[in-house]
Amino acid sequence: MSKNTLSIASLGTPRIGPRRELKFALEKYWSGQLSAKDLSETATALRCANWARQHALGITTIPSNDFSFYDHVLDTAVMVGAIPKAYGWSGGPVNLETYFAMARGSVGGASHPICVHGHSAPAHGVPALEMTKWFDTNYHYMVPELEPDQDFTLASTKPVDEFREALAIGYKTRPVILGPISFLKLSKCTDGTTECINLIDKILSVYLDLMEQLQAAGAEWLQIDEPALVLDLSEIERAAYKRVYSKIAKTVPSLKIMLTSYFGSLGNNLDIATSLPVAGLHIDLVRAPEQLTAVRQKLQQNQILSLGVIDGRNIWRADLQKLHDWLLPVVQERGLTGIELAPSCSLLHTPIDLELETELDSDLKSWLAFSVQKMAELSTLGQAFEKGVETVAGALQAATKALQARATSDKVHNKTVQNRVQATGSELTSRNSPFKTRSFLQQEATGLPLFPTTTIGSFPQTAEVRKARTAFNKGELSPTAYNAFLKTETKRAIRWQEEIGIDVLVHGEFERNDMVQYFGEQLAGYAFTKHAWVQSYGSRCVRPPIIYGDVARPHAMTVEWTAYAQSLTSRPVKGMLTGPVTMLQWSFVRDDMPRADVCKQIALALRDEVTDLETAGIRLIQVDEPALREGLPLRRLEWSAYLEWAVACFKLATSGVTDAVQIHTHMCYCEFNDIISSIAAMDADVISIETSRSKMELLDAFVSYSYPNDIGPGVYDIHSPRIPKTAEISNLLEKANGLLKATQIWVNPDCGLKTRSWDEVRPALIAMVAAAKNLRQHA
Ligand code: GLN
Ligand code: ZN
Which of 555, 681, 664 is closest to 618 using CA atoms? Predict the structure, then answer.
């Protein structure tokens, strides 16, 4: 950063490559088709391209070490030598094999327990580290596992190596590392009780080693990410910040630290963050613009204030003129060298380049900005401050014009939807009668046995199914032929379920590409991209739909398939929908309206689908909400407001039916203890949950709450190819039966079966039905 220019930073860029080059290289490497050397060359090329792209776009503070083969938290664990014994590492450099064993399990290791994007491997060998969501994003990180007396050592100098690599080709970067306190906050201790933060002094000495090496290698700046600063922290953690950052300042006095917070407001950690002896502080001004005033007051004049003003979590074009006017007093007060312009957080969570989207509606496209466009926005804003706003007048006006068009476009605004939302009162968010009454009527209507058996919705998406869909999408298979194919699959699934004696059938979801996309494609207000991939975990990327306008349902979405399935059998077929909160949570959501209101629009569209299903004679309807818990705000204080609207939206979607229609919901991979009252408030007649891996422990929340409605505790793990034995399922069912009333219990797998093969599904469900029948006889 030279004297009279301001710093324009990206904080981190997507790693995967514009055409998902890293994904394909990794997958080839894992399957033995690519050598380690070739993989490493692909990685080098991607890093160089990232640096060059940022430079060309006007980023002046370019990061390094934002690249990762799999995950930056895993990289950090490896860097500090936190490699669990099971992976057989005995010191020295950590090779790729060990690294990927931690990420994916060793040869034949267990799969990641992720439901929606399920993938799997044989269940032998050392399992992968656990994986969980990175704050409130849809990115997943590998959870470091630490011993209570964990020792740390500098096992990898990746940050130094990549700094040198960039330097060698002419970029003096600002390396980025995950800070020690956030790292420990994201880790788990193997004994389950020790707080990882107790290891702070031990881990700090390794971080200090690294920083000394960075300093020696010529690094002038270091970006330390401490997103934990936006969380509720314990006193020990808060105290650690002061100690750690003072020690860093003393040990590497000439290394300037840019400490970054993101994903929210510093809140009650603001005094701590602004009092640390660091050269700069980054704050998220998209999620928490209100913190600007307080931080401005507290931060020393000689510290750089990094202004996170371009949304790193969403894809909307910024209002540059408005940003300019808002920030001008800050720039005048602190001077050009006293500020930095940046995205709210690393650009990791945005797709790479909007220009690749050649088929997107041109109006919508003009309202969007992906990571490339966001960097250009930062550069424009920087130029406005450096050279005068008139020098970028054209760019500012273009942005203003696009935003005005968006604000008034009838592609976005639908009066009918808005009026309907307005007129929606709380009377629409509850069923006609209490559960007891409904349950009686439903039992009369369905005549189901005790411990009814069912599945969660999807049956195997076989190679054949996917091939047919691809051919149909390419126009190689006619709609008639595709439809006939899907009908055959559905019919076969119905016949087979009847044959093995499942009580409540599903149509199998063969026609669905993805549980959100399938609905989004049929709803107005949703758009889909071709190349806008963002990393979900490792080589896995997702293309979240874009909710850009008022959501409406032009036509019924599932009635035809469900009714067709029901026409084939006298047993009840369960309708299958994705819930409003999940539809919201797994999309890029418009930023011109509160999320709660967008959710309400989706809920109303689904409400119509639910009532249409009833009209078509469907007696049970499942509305999946696997993402309900994910939506919880980072701060505890904000939970109840979120839960209130999320639950209300679920109820709005499901309360339009008569008492005799049974509403099911499904949630996988979810801890229920602290949200059980909201789960109960959803008032679904039946909830199916994932419980097999916890050996029914996740039921405890329901038991201690005396949860009144019905529950289907998952009786076998669908993430593993292991085929469960009847006896195992019986054991789990006995356990559930000891905890709940017999009349409350449903029998089902943990989740949908789309990622499994029929060879796995057939024997597993046969065993499940046998276990239910046994229990009926003995209970
Ligand atoms: N009905 C969906 C399925 O079976 C549910 C998926 C999920 O819970 N993520 O595939
Ligand atoms: Zn599930």
Answer: 664
